[in-house]
Amino acid sequence: MAGCSGRDAVIVGAVRTPVGKGKPGGALHSVLPADLLAHSLSELVARTGVDPAEVDDVIAGAVTQVGDQAVNIARNALLGAGFPESVPGTTVDRQCGSSQQAISFAAQGVIAGAYDVVIAGGVESMSRVPMGSSVLPGSDPFGTRFAERYSEGLVPQGISAELIAARWGLSRTELDEFSAASHEKAARATKDGLFDNELAPIAGLQYDEIIRPGTTVDTLAGLKPAFYNEAYAARFPQIKWEITPGNSSPLSDGSAAVLITTSDVARRHGWKPLARIHTTTVVGSDPLYMLTGVIPATEKVLRKAGLTLADIDLFEVNEAFAPVVLSWARDTGADLAKTNVNGGAIAIGHPLGASGARIMTTLVNALEQRGARYGLQTMCEGGGMANATIIERL
């Protein structure tokens, strides 16, 4: 990914908070979302040594932009972090991929010459701003023409996950095995200190709060379906009702931030580039199945990059639900042994607007630790979309 002038986009710093339980009583519930993002911004400045006055823009993802997350949280957070008033900020919403899209926008701006130094990140406090709370009673965010096109009606994401499990023939045991493995990998990574370089403790929380060491298929098997609904059962008789809290990502709180610049600017400042943003893309997909966009997004980004699956050393596929990753692996042929090697969102958590930057931070770190070259990140998104990004360790 390079501009006509030869400009590139490199990551020179990436940091995230530990992920907290996204409900009252969670470790980060008392932290206002703007302060949560400000913490990652401040830590990024401290760790990279960047002068905040040189930051051309802060682009932050946030999904539920209402209440404590309203009024352009990117700008509020950067001012709270002590950045000069001359630094602007903007907040983007591409649903679960919001901060991955923020990274793409930042990279595109750097390559185009619109920016020299930019921060991309994201935040979500699902304990303070519940998912869906931006849809006011009596409102219609879809409109009549949308309703005419999809006259049978779309479904919540949990039902989409059930439909995917049914279409791909994924058993409850397969889903629970994958989910238990996510906890095992995340617990081991935490114990071995593999997250230490990326974590910025806050409010007394040192490590991700949601990971459950010792999670087994047997314990997950005892959980009941989370999304059973008589109307949907009648409409979709193929559903076997296999999606539970154990094979879904939990409600979460967290933030993350990534510093992006060019190789030339990094050299002038003495910053060590961690990875080059090689290729980015975004796709739309069937809004009924909603979560399958990771499949065409992976195919498209590889094609644009001139790479193959065999070239990719590590994959990060957001674990919104277990069938998302398992159907992706089955259709693309990607190796699950290279996927989410330090666990994924089922164990670590999925703070919606922060997840893209959280996963990027983890991917950069994992590539460095393993001496690997290429990483591919992809995320499904509400409404039927997906981002995909390939990075190259430098």
Please, could you describe this protein's structure?
The chain has 394 residues and is α/β, with parallel strands linked by helices. The protein has 13 helices and ten strands. Strands 1, 2, 3, 4, 5, 6, 7, 8, 9 and 10 form a ten-stranded mixed β-sheet that branches. Helix 3 (98-112) crosses helix 13 (355-370). The radius of gyration is 20 Å and the shape is globular. The model has no long low-confidence stretch (mean pLDDT 97). InterPro entries: Thiolase, Thiolase-like, Thiolase_C, Thiolase_CS, Thiolase_N.
Shape: globular
Q: Report mean pLDDT, rounded to a whole number.
A: 97
**Got a strand count?**
10
The oligomeric state of the chains shown is single chain
**Order of helical and strand elements:** EEHEHEHEHHHHHEHEHEHHHEE
Tell me the fraction of residues in β-strands, as a range: 15-25%
Low-confidence stretches: none
Rg is: 20 Å
- Tally of alpha and pi helices: 13
What does the largest sheet look like? 10 strands, mixed
| Alpha-beta classification | alpha/beta
Cα(first) to Cα(last) distance is 14 Å
Helix content: 25-40%
Organism: Mycolicibacterium crocinum
GO molecular function: acetyl-CoA C-acyltransferase activity
Protein name: Acetyl-CoA C-acyltransferase
Domain Thiolase C-terminal: 272-393
Which helices and strands appear, and what pairs or packs with what?
Blueprint: E1 10-16, E2 20-21, H1 33-48, E3 57-61, H2 73-80, E4 89-92, H3 98-112, E5 117-125, H4 144-149, H5 157-167, H6 172-191, H7 217-221, H8 230-235, E6 252-261, H9 263-269, E7 275-284, H10 294-305, E8 314-317, H11 322-332, H12 345-348, H13 355-370, E9 374-381, E10 385-393
Parallel strand pairs: 3-4, 3-5, 8-9
Antiparallel strand pairs: 1-6, 1-7, 2-6, 5-6, 7-10, 9-10
Helix pairs in contact: 1-2, 3-13, 5-11, 10-11
